[in-house]
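To assess whether the prediction recovers the assembly geometry, we first specified each molecular entity separately, as shown.
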Amino acid sequence: MNATAEALFVAEPFQAAGDVVIDCTVNKIFYGDFLAVRDSVVPIEKKKITGFIGPSGCGKSTVLRSLNRMNDLISVFRFEGNVIYHGQDIYAKKVDPVVVRRYIGMVFQQPNPFSMSIFDNVAFGLRLNRFKGDIEERVERALQRAALWKEVKDKLKNSGLSLSGGQQQRLCIARAIATEPDVLLMDEPCSALDPIATRQVEELMLELKENYTLAMVTHNMQQATRVADTTAFFSVDISQGGRTGYLVEMGPTRQIFEDPREQLTKEYISGEFS
Amino acid sequence: MSNLFQAANASGGVSGPPSAGEYATDRLFRGIALSSAFVIILLVAYILWELGREAAPAVGEYGLSFITGSTWNASKAQFSVLPEIWGTLYSSLLALVLGGAFGIAIAIFLTQDFINHRLATVFRTIVEMLAAIPSVVFGLWGIYVLIPLLKPGAEWLHQSLGWFPLFGTDLAGPGMAPAALVLAIMILPTVAAISVDAFRRIPYKVKEAAYGMGTTRWEAILKVMLPTASSGVLAALVLGFGRALGETMALAMLIGNSNQISLSLFSPANTLASLLASNFPEAGRVEVQALMYAALVLLAITFLVNVAGLAVQQYTIRKFEGKP
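The predicted structure of the complete assembly is given in tokenized form:
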């Protein structure tokens, strides 16, 4: 601990050009006593793909998971700040996190299909939201968009867990997009996929952003340059005794990768430190 | 033992094969494990053979009519066990429905974040302590506490809903209802403990996936957690049912030992295990042979139930988990 601490670095706020669908202002995120993330303003633009990059432990996943209150599953999690979604702070007392998650979907790093048939996996959200239309048509469309339809169309009754790892992840993507949620959060969605499947998922993301908003954590900087319109770079601050993540710089992907303002960003994208 | 790859250590590596001693230990352990498994199989086969030998005269004498008739009269040398088969299955099924439902509910309560972890462990230990209570204590409790407690309710049910087969008779004392209730309590720890393990085995990422879809807690539990744990929960139910089928002492004290087939919850009945326990002490040579035959029937029922349970479990594993 440095008693004469200088003022902590805080990133310049990013002024989004278009509409902002989720305006996230993190003051502090705690796990118990541990300060995981501090002072990060991350606006998520409508119908754009926002990429979160940064070294391990920088809090990018934590911030992403705060956007649909997934972190509420952890009992010691505490969020200070606000996340304004359609004019409403999702951390307000009257907001039920269950409702938030129905509008802001999520795809996880590890494939996690349910112990049920492929069809039931994809139809899960539709049934949950009491969808009255043609479930079969929606399931087929979701599987097609997730680039999985051709492989599974003859075995929709088989268990989702009978698929290979890459197929399972695409199944989870199909499950998440079947209800066409307004915003889709993806936490390193391609880390379990081979390059071909990765490319298919990236194409899907580009297609989805025509109508929906996406935010994605990725460890793969090429992936960020390929799909993200806006990139937020996080780093981890060990000067305060803990390992606290914070936003270093956020801007159009092109600017972040070609003309970063911050020295830290420059070093990270050129691979000078992990 | 010579090292075939000695040359591979040329640049200073220290890799080497296991020693002769290590190989010998390996073989020794394999031998012990194999012979233990073999001894168990031999033991089962021996018990079956011995039972079959003792029961052979009765099997020859009564044949299939033993399991279709309903008299047990030692003085006339008439022996048949249909009411006992019925009583065994009926009491066990009732116990399974009650104990199973409560056991699974307890497992859900203990694993799905309703109470904190330490409290859950205490709670689980208490439930498991139920399994340590001797059967005869349950029997005594049934006679002195449960039956008097049930009587007024049973009387009321019989008088107002007597037309309904389940309440067709009055509870005179021992009977199906107290027996099944005590059985349910006895299988509860088995069902609960194994179901708790089944729920605990569900990876965290499955829970995340469920809540990530926007499920409420009950939706997550009923639509995701329960199907995921289903093979383990089924195993719990099969084991609980098996335990109920074979339970002896408490039933001998509570079921009334009466040779009749009735749907009524309040009528006295009998089970195979209870028949064996009550009749052995004073049985003559012929009756002992008949009792051995009854034991074989009980064994066959238990075996069939276990096989059926396994089949259902395998089916759910294939259906839900996609494993061949």
